[in-house]
Amino acid sequence: MTSGAPEASRRTAAFMRGWSLEATLPHAVEIEALKGTFAPDACIYLSAIPAEPVSRIIEAAAFVRRAGFEPVPHIAARNYPDRTALADVLGQMQRGAGMQRVLVIAGDRDRSAGPFVDALSVIESGLLQANGVREIGIGGYPEGHPRIPTDQLERAFAAKLAAARRAGLRVHAVTQFSFDAEAVLAWLRKLRADGFDGPVRIGIAGPASITTLLKYAQRCGVRATARGMMRSAGVALQALGRATPDDIVAEIAEGLAAENLGDVKPHLYSFGGVAATAKWAKGAESVSAAT
């Protein structure tokens, strides 16, 4: 181990501390299994799937709260046919899961099911704070968006931030996952230069097969190739083609240590499963902290 390795490990530990997890409608047994791995009151974000009934995300939020964690459901604007439907879902989440935070997104539908065409329209509706929400997450795209120009993304972020502040809602940013540490750091620098000083959760793909990572990268518009990943695109290749995000975590931690970019923590996408992602994160945090 080189003389700089202990310091690098300490930087990684500092970055990993306070990681959050994103899961796609996990079952109660998956959430219960996180006890002892995930810190109490840690945030578990719950993806909204257009093909799934909304009752599933309401149920998952309750599982998360009962296990002692903080549920952060995705509110996909285009999924709701009217104000009553959105208010009903928010109310059920507040009553059943003590929901105080949500991630507000437009959603994957090409056409809206009702009056909410984007995240901004939900933030401006007044329904979030009326149903117990105190803080919202809004999306960020370090590698850009496959269908939306960068300048339009920046204007939309600013508009959502301004609307949230008018509504008295705290704001944090949550990014799409990336395999490019320099793109992430450049995006953070621009975000801070533009005046956003709130917490940021950087999207990172948890351990999964190269095939799985490529599938999600293609679906989400993230630039990635199998050759690039195997070369060094933010992942470390393990046995049987399994990739872990050791490299990008270390690179981002190094960048954060070199300059003051504020409150920045990892947000792990559990493409390879909730348990595997949490186990990797706990191991990475513990090894780094012990070095």
Question: Which key phrases capture this entry?
Answer:
291 residues, alpha/beta, TIM Barrel, eight-stranded parallel beta barrel, 11 strands, 18% strand
Molecular structure report:
The chain is α/β, with parallel strands linked by helices. The chain has a single domain (5-285), classed as TIM Barrel. It contains twelve helices and eleven strands. The chain has helices spanning 5-16, 28-32, 54-66, 83-97, 119-123, 127-130, 150-166, 181-193, 210-220, 226-231, 246-258, 274-290, and strands at 20-23, 43-46, 70-76, 101-105, 135-140, 170-175, 200-205, 208-209, 236-237, 242-244, 264-269. The strands form two sheets. The chain has an eight-stranded parallel β-barrel, surrounded by four helices. It has a three-stranded antiparallel β-sheet with strand order 8-10-9. Strand 9 (236-237) and strand 10 form a beta hairpin. Helix 1 (5-16) crosses helix 11 (246-258), helix 1 crosses helix 12 (274-290) and helix 8 (181-193) packs parallel to helix 11. The longest helix is centred in the middle third of the chain and has 17 residues, at 150-166. The protein is globular and about 55 Å long. The protein starts with a helix and ends with a helix.
According to CATH, what is the class?
Alpha Beta
Strand fraction equals 15-25%
Structural class by secondary-structure content: alpha/beta
Shape: globular
Instruction: Give the SSE order as H and E letters.
Output: HEHEHEHEHHEHEHEEHHEEHEH
Q: What's the architecture in CATH terms?
A: Alpha-Beta Barrel
Q: Let me know the largest β-sheet.
A: 8 strands, parallel, barrel
Oligomer class: single chain
Number of helices: 12
- Main β-sheet, spatial strand arrangement: 1-2-3-4-5-6-7-11
- SS elements, strand count: 11
Distance between the termini: 11 Å
Give start-end ranges of low-pLDDT stretches: none
Helical proportion, percent range = 40-55%
Mean pLDDT: 89
Rounded radius of gyration (Å): 18 Å
CATH topology: TIM Barrel
Number of domains: 1
